[in-house]
Structure formats: C-alpha cells, structure tokens
C-alpha cells in the first residue's frame, strides 16, 4: 500500500499470486449500457496495469429506483457483463443499494506470477515513458454535463474509455517492462508522480508530445475543467517545474481520467520492440518523456 499501486497482490504459492482491485465511478456518459461497460473496462485496467490476468468480478450498484426506470439499472449491469465476457472474466455476483446518486463499480480478481508483477515503482533513471491513450475524459465529461460538448469529442472520448488496456498489457508482459500504471483519477501527472516517488526518481516530460483528444483544449478555454483537476494540480504544487507552458495546455495533464491509458516505463534498448508490438495490436504508443535521477517533474519543450 505504500506505493499506491493499481491493485493488491497476495502470494498463494510458488507461481501464483492473487491480484485484486476495486473501482467505483459516477456516470460519465449518457448511455447506461456504455456506463456499465466503461466501469468494467476501467476496473479491469488495474489488473492489466499490474501484469495480471483477470478471472472473476463482483459488481456494486448504487441506484435511485424512485428517480430512474429500473431498466437503466439492468442496462448498466448488462453493459458491464458484456465487457467482462469479452475479457473472459467471470461475473460471480454483485450487490445493489438504494442511493440518490448513481454509482457503479466492480471488484476484480486476477492472477499473476509473483515474479512477474509489474509495479508502478520499478522505473530506473533513463527509462523512456510511453502513454497509450490521449488525455481528456474528465474535461469531456464536464463538457457533456454542461451541454457544451462537440459531437466529435463525445464520440471520441466514449470510444477511448471503452477501449481495453488488455492488449497493451499483453505486450508489456511479453516485452517485460520495469514499471507501469494506468491513468485514472489523479490525472497523468498525479500517476506519474506516484511512479517517480515510488522509484525515488524524477521525470522530464515533453509537453507537446502528450496526446490530447481533439477539441479538449477548446473545452478548457471555455472553462470545462472538472473540480478534480484543480485538486490534482493543488496536490502537486511545487513538484512540477517549468513555467513557460500556457495554462490551457496544463489542465489536461491534471485532468482525472476514467479508463485512461497505460503509462509505461521502458529501457531505451527495448523501446522499439515495445512500440512495434503495441502497433501490431493497434495500440498507439506516444513517447512523452523519460525518468531521471534528479527529483521533480520538469517540462521540456524538445527531447533530442
Ligand atoms: Co490504477
Ligand atoms: Co483503480
Ligand atoms: Co448483498
């Protein structure tokens, strides 16, 4: 628990450990089945980030039966079931409570070889840093709630959230990487900070190489920045250096992501094989910076 990793690992024997996680989210899309699907993909992601294979899941639903048709509840569960089926993860059951605010989440249990756990704290100075999805889900969902979202951005962010980190994780396991995590509530920089502090390192980030969803900057310009981004930014005060970056360009890096991409550390000598293997699975890999021994996260505007 000290390194705030994505999931807990419990050794069962020589070659098997349990890997367990729980994730609960509030609605971030209009369609209840999409919401359930995304919640499941988001929960599975923590197992994948650890290099694990999901086995079983339980659902948790907080629902307002007086305000909403029961059909919505079954659509949420249906969406989650669909995602679990696609990941060959068995749904064992679940629990529902009455609540005026909808929440839905899952616990997922998987297995991993005890020697092959990918933690968030194993990076070394000089390792390159790759990101597998563009940023912007928190900003986009704020824009959706504010009825400001352009249809193209809505389609794009829902698509990215539904996209599994499973294929990327399979590549990581095959290539062997020293550290990884998935980007969720603390935003890119919050999760990067956890990787840095867990490893006793800092990082250089090439700000203009960080992929953003199309239209996210426009949404930032009109104030669609979620509260969580302010909290994340506040939390990292004094830890992020480099001042010549326009504020609008910074907000997406603090934006809380739902079902965000993987942030992967890889030694330079193995980067090419990682990137080409990811490409063969149709997973984009954006090189966004590197780890260094000097502490702090620093923005640079041009890596070699
Ligand atoms: Co995680
Ligand atoms: Co999580
Ligand atoms: Co019960």
How does this structure look, described?
- It is a single chain.
- With 304 residues, the chain is of the alpha+beta class.
- It has two domains: 109 residues, PurM-like, N-terminal domain (60s Ribosomal Protein L30, Chain: A, 2-Layer Sandwich); 173 residues, Alpha-Beta Complex (Phosphoribosyl-aminoimidazole Synthetase, Chain A, domain 2).
- It is built from ten helices and twelve strands.
- The strands form two sheets. Strands 7-10-6-11-8-12-9 form a seven-stranded mixed sheet. Strands 1-2-5-3-4 form a five-stranded mixed sheet.
- Strand 1 and strand 2 form a beta hairpin.
- Helix 1 packs parallel to helix 5 and helix 3 packs across helix 4.
- It is globular and about 55 Å long.
- The relative contact order is 0.19.
- The structure holds cobalt (II) ion (3 copies).
- The site of one cobalt (II) ion has 5 residues, from strand 2.
